[in-house]
Fold this sequence. Notes:
Bound molecules: adenosine-5'-diphosphate, magnesium ion
Oligomer: single chain
Helix content: 25-40%
Amino acid sequence: MKIAKKDVLKALEHITVPGEGQNMVESGAVKNLQIFGDEVEIDITINNPSLQARKKTEVEILKIIHQEVYAKAKIKVNIKVDAPAAKPKVNEIKGKPIPGIQNIIAVASGKGGVGKSTVTANLAVTLAKMGFKVGLLDADIYGPSMPIMFDVAQEKPLAVNVDGKSKMKPVESYGVKLLSIGFFTQPNQAVIWRGPMASKALNQMIFDAHWGEIDFMLVDLPPGTGDIHLSIMQSMPITGAVIVSTPQEVALADARKAVAMFRQDSINVPVLGIAENMAYFTPEELPNNKYYIFGKEGAKHLAEDLEVPFLGEIPLVQSIREAGDVGRPAALQTATPVEEAFEALTRNTVQEVVNRNKNLPPTEAIKITTMAGCSAVKKK
Length: 380
Ligand SMILES: Nc1ncnc2c1ncn2[C@@H]1O[C@H](COP(=O)(O)OP(=O)(O)O)[C@@H](O)[C@H]1O
Ligand SMILES: [Mg+2]
């Protein structure tokens, strides 16, 4: 009787090593398999150090091969125990994972008015057009603008009952699920959110909301590098950050600070890249004319300098501003250069999320014990 190797492997696929999710072939536990006629010798490595786990695995292997391959096979099982290497501890506490939410992208800018919210809104609708499930959390406590940009300023999130708990239901517009700090304030009312209050409101929008399944959750952060950023990064395991800047020197200086904030040891959120907004002005009737009114390729050079990916450039065009004001993001206008620009930006961003998830462990929400870290950001 000559036993075939593939039959033995197939039989071993029925066995899951204690403490591991996959079967022992998939998990790579089977290190070597040799067959001489009716003799089978198997070398396996398991992570479970208990004698009981080893015995159990050995018995299962003998049984399954006798059952499925050859009842009289002579089997030798060599088990090596390989205790898992202690994982390097990156952050102090594990972030509360948010069930159903795959990737969280924070959009930050450093300076206000550079088009962070405009870029976020257009990224969101473009992702939705590409077929992703998209959430948008407008965390800009100083100037929440998403309700207007999505034409839902008059709406309020409803309460829904989920498993006996009352949850906030995000407002949906253009295929994007949206919650904004603006839904909880009166229009025209100057609201000064104190840090703890703002954190509480944001936490509710994150954890007491019924987001459902989300591929990409975008978070429109307030401009700057302040407490509220730290608070958000404490509550959410952020996959990565996108920095928006114009090519202008003052904006670039603040973008640099934003990158430094995410890169701080105590925060350690990967920067997915820099997007250049208002890269050049184009008159709608002369689309080939480009006027570099804020300077040329400033954000691109900053990206090179900081060794972060450059995600793309968005021109300054009247239709982008108008679209924001009427509440229908410009990227929804099909077959336009604006749509194309946002599509390129979105594709690059998704690609960077994919790269990031391949190369790095999940970000954990961080615990910041002192505010000392902030001064490090302000220094540069
Ligand atoms: N690429 C662009 N072309 C034209 N107008 C833009 C562009 N990006 C932003 N704007 C306009 O600039 C203003 C500031 O943009 P906004 O997204 O609110 O900035 P931020 O969120 O960074 O404060 C808004 O009136 C917006 O419509
Ligand atoms: Mg804004």
